[in-house]
Backbone:
């Protein structure tokens, strides 16, 4: 190709584009769009695996709906974990209800989410017990991010 | 539940879905920020009944409490633009 | 479920292409921040499509990661632009005098009842709302120390689960309380970080 | 399947388009348009009964809106 | 093990000498004798040694030890026929050494060298393309299995030619005076090595000699299969001569151009791998 | 109990640590990476930053940039956090856990440089942060797609020959790590490294290279 003053070869033009800091996010986005478009064509070949861990079971008549997973407090219940043998007390957290939530559960069938979010319940089981390390990483991220924000915010004085 | 009643509720569901959709389109197409916020409110009006229909009253209450808070937060900058 | 999943993926992929194309075109840095918030929603949508309890347990950390990064990046942006001055109070509507106490109280109370991540986020928004409307005295350091201890408490709870699982009950209670405190504490600090005379 | 799901993906796509290309291209319109896909995601979560995630998501969205508002108002003041 | 290391070091230093000599002859200069680099290293070992006052002292010293450590480890991996993923991992870690070396001194030239080293990190990417291609063919990344596969099917050079080219580019970008050697180009004095003198420099020379030896050796093992030692050395020498020719003829590229060139190589090889992967699958 | 399905890629496993569903492991390869990360984390703790010399061109003047103690303390804290996140990512045996540690690396990297007032360094940190944030889409997206199509997140299951991980998920994973660790987009990172504080800035580099090495192992094994 012809060289022109101030433009350079094709390669040096590419080089100039990637050396611009402001183009960075755009470059990444272009790459990602390209991959996504290619991926969109392979979508029909993706098969949803019906045999999932921690599947959802809905029992609309339960007062714990949509988180009714059975079990009695201080006892275990059936939970489909990846490695049940690593969590000897698996299912105990799922089955537990605090006195407050037990009271709520006995009186109204519409507050299942509140009841299960209170200590105990399947989500706590996953977050604290079987996949606790995720929560360690995640709270650490919040900690670090906040440290950055606070440092920048307070540096001015 | 009787046959007719179920049908009735189903019809209502579609109606609410329609409201939410109208809200979406209007919020997306309006140009004035305040009109947009009203559009968002219409979406909420369409979505909340859907939440209630599924029987999650606590969620519906919480969403109903938080959405106005979001709107007020957005209003903080809205006024400045309008001036 | 099969078709639903594929359909959902298709919709999200379409959204990804639209959203990221906007990012390619975008040149203003603040607009870029706004678009990353959009990206966050798309990431969560991908997880939500899995539709199990596990997916839900993955969404919660994903959410917190998103808000953390947004917090850090927006602060970097403000410092870079030199926008550290507190803007004059520009809006005061009637509802901001009457609503906050009751609304914030309801949200915080509900958040404490929920405990854990969800409770932390709900209580956090309550506190933020209160601070926006009523102004605040600086309690930065106390909050920070508090939420630091909460983090340590959670780590303790984690080790209870790993090392002495028979005490799971204490683990759950400590974890629920600690994460509530931690998330709510950090979030409410964002509320005080609007700056003010007594920073 | 459920009405919520289809409504959800429809709102998600429309909202994404609206947030990606807001018409008067100001920070404010984009910020408000960002709420729309959030509602779409909320509906998708609702259709899969992920209510706890839904609850947390709506609260965190409010907080992130606040974080952005904080930036936008200072940018406006400058 | 120590005998391997000493042998590798001496051969590597000798190769560096030959490299300089060949370049000089092509450019019509007499050039230094081929054992010059060995003498250099010995000389540096007995010269006065100091640490600059502005340096981050611990890092400044540690980097030299890390450099020798990782390349010794790399040689051991090769000799014991371990995982080539590990080998290439070590190669990536070399980037950190280059970077730390430049930054730790506090010197502006060192800093420029370090920044260019970070910039040109795209040079590592073709390596993974190579690893991927080899895995597609042999189904294993253990050197033992790769050698066995080559004994059974013939050299990988024929089957996975683009991967070999990618590795060749990688080796080229690590040679002195190569068109990609922006981190030690002369306009920034000696780049990231500017402040390392005396024993530190001797240590670095040893590490770099090992590096050259390991990379050439790995190329031969990966793409030509098991050969007797003398033949291995001969092939390595041939490879080195071809590299020297390129170094002698090509001018140094500008920093961002090297990134572009290396990324393009990567892109081409990646496309090749996807195609091969689809065909083989 | 736990047997690594493939040993032909990274050598035999050394030992496993079990945290419920997340089973972390060390093979020869990951142990080597872990050791290296540990080495540099220790280095961060014990070494002091250098004082960069800047030349004022056009004269023979030069001056050194000093790092204030407060800045140094913050940077050291961030570098340490970054080191810990890298260690976590190196030994993780679960895809989602790995992605979480990866995003933690991304955010600590921003933190390490955000301590400086120089505008171009902050600008680089900002642009980098934007990419790190949008990279969470492919990162979490890949974990989600893997979970949906295979029904598991544990690498112990995924590495087995019976489970086919979709190609798109693999590419997303690599792309995500590229975004967080900035693998080919070194331009911003080069700008970032102009900041003083060599041992800490070096940590940025260590973490992202190690992440990349790890993700290659994961993707090839799957």
Residues:
């Amino acid at each position: 190709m012809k060289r022109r003053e101030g433009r350079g070869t094709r390669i040096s033009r590419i080089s100039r584009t990637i050396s611009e800091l402001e183009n960075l996010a755009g470059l990444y986005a272009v790459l990602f769009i390209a991959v996504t478009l290619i991926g969109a064509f392979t979508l029909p070949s993706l098969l949803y695996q019906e045999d999932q861990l921690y599947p959802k079971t809905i029992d609309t008549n339960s007062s714990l709906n949509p988180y009714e997973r059975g079990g009695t407090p201080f006892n275990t219940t059936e939970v489909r974990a990846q490695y049940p043998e690593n969590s000897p007390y698996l299912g105990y957290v799922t089955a537990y209800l605090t006195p407050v939530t037990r009271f709520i559960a006995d009186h109204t069938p519409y507050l299942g989410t509140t009841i299960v979010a209170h200590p105990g319940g399947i989500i706590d089981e996953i977050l604290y017990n079987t996949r606790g390390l995720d929560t360690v990483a995640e709270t650490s991220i919040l900690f670090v991010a906040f440290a950055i924000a606070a440092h920048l915010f307070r540096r001015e004085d | 539940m009787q046959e007719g009643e179920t049908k009735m509720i189903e019809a209502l569901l579609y109606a609410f879905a329609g409201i939410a959709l109208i809200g979406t389109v209007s919020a997306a197409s309006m140009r004035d920020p305040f009109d947009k916020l009203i559009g968002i409110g219409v979406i909420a009006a369409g979505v909340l009944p859907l939440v209630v229909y599924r029987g999650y009253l606590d969620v519906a209450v919480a969403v109903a409490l938080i959405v106005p808070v979001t709107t007020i937060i957005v209003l903080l900058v809205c006024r400045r633009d309008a001036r | 479920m099969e078709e639903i999943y594929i359909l959902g993926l298709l919709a999200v992929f379409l959204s990804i292409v639209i959203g990221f194309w906007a990012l390619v075109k975008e040149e203003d840095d603040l607009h870029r921040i706004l678009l990353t918030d959009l990206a966050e929603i798309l990431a969560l949508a991908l997880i939500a499509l899995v539709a199990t309890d596990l997916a839900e347990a993955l969404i919660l950390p994903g959410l917190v990661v998103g808000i953390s990064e947004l917090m850090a990046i927006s602060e970097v942006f403000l410092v870079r632009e030199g926008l550290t001055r507190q803007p004059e109070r520009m809006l005061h509507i009637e509802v901001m005098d009457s609503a906050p106490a009751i609304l914030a109280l309801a949200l915080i109370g509900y958040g404490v009842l929920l405990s854990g991540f969800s409770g932390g986020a709900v209580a956090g928004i309550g506190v933020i709302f209160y601070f926006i409307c009523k102004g605040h005295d600086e309690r930065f350091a106390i909050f920070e120390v508090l939420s630091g201890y909460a983090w340590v408490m959670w780590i303790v709870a984690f080790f209870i689960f790993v090392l002495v699982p028979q005490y799971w009950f204490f683990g759950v209670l400590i974890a629920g309380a600690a994460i509530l405190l931690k998330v709510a504490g950090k979030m409410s600090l964002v509320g005080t970080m609007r700056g003010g005379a007594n920073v | 399947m459920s009405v919520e799901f289809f409504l959800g993906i429809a709102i998600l796509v429309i909202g994404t388009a609206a947030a990606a290309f807001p018409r008067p291209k100001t920070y404010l319109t984009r910020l408000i348009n960002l709420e729309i896909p959030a509602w779409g995601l909320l509906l998708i979560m609702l259709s899969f009964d992920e209510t706890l995630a839904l609850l947390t998501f709506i609260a965190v969205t409010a907080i992130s809106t606040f974080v952005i508002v904080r930036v936008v108002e200072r940018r406006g003041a400058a | 093990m120590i005998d391997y290391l000493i042998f590798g070091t001496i051969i590597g230093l000798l190769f560096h000498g030959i490299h300089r000599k060949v370049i000089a002859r092509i450019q019509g200069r007499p050039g230094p004798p081929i054992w010059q680099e060995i003498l250099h290293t010995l000389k540096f070992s007995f010269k006065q040694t100091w640490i600059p006052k502005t340096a981050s002292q611990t890092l400044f010293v540690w980097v030299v030890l890390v450099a020798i450590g990782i390349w010794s480890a790399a040689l051991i991996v090769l000799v014991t026929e371990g995982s080539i993923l590990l080998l290439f991992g070590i190669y990536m870690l070399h980037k950190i050494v280059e970077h730390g070396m430049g930054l730790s001194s506090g010197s502006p030239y060192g800093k420029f060298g370090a920044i260019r080293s970070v910039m040109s990190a795209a040079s590592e990417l073709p390596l993974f393309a190579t690893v991927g291609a080899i895995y597609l063919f042999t189904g294993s990344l253990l050197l033992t299995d790769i050698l066995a596969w080559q004994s059974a099917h013939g050299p990988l050079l024929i089957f996975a030619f683009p991967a070999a080219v990618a590795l060749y580019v990688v080796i080229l970008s690590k040679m002195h005076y190569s068109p990609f050697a922006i981190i030690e180009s002369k306009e920034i004095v000696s780049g990231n090595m500017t402040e390392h003198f005396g024993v530190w420099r001797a240590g670095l020379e040893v590490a770099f000699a090992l590096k050259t030896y390991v990379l050439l050796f790995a190329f031969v093992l990966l793409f030509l299969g098991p050969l007797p030692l003398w033949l291995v050395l001969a092939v390595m020498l041939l490879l080195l001569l071809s590299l020297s020719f390129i170094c002698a003829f090509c001018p140094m590229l500008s920093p961002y151009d090297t990134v572009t060139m290396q990324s393009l190589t990567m892109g081409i090889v990646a496309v090749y791998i996807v195609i091969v992967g689809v065909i083989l699958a | 109990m736990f047997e690594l399905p493939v040993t032909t890629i990274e050598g035999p496993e050394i030992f496993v640590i079990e945290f419920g569903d997340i089973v972390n492991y060390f093979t020869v390869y990951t142990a080597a990476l872990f050791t290296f990360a540990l080495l540099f984390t220790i280095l961060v703790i014990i070494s002091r930053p250098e004082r960069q010399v800047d030349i004022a061109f056009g004269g023979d003047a030069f001056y050194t940039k000093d790092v204030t103690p407060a800045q140094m303390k913050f940077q050291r804290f961030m570098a340490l956090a970054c080191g810990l996140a890298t260690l976590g990512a190196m030994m993780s045996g679960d895809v989602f856990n790995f992605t979480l540690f990866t995003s933690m690396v991304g955010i600590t990297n921003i933190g390490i440089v955000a301590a400086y007032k120089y505008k171009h360094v902050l600008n680089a940190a900002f642009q980098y942060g934007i990419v790190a944030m949008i990279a969470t889409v492919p990162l979490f997206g890949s974990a989600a797609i893997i979970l949906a199509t295979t029904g598991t997140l544990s690498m112990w299951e995924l590495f087995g020959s019976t489970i086919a991980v979709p190609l798109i998920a693999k590419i997303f994973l690599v792309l995500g790590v590229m975004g967080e660790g900035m693998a080919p987009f070194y331009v911003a990172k080069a700008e970032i490294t102009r900041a003083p504080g060599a041992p800490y800035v070096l940590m940025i580099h260590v973490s992202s290279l190690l992440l990349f090495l790890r993700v290659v192992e994961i993707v090839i094994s799957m």
About this structure: Chain F touches chain A through 60 residues (CB under 8 Å). DSSP finds nine helices and four strands in chain F. The mean pLDDT of chain F is 81.
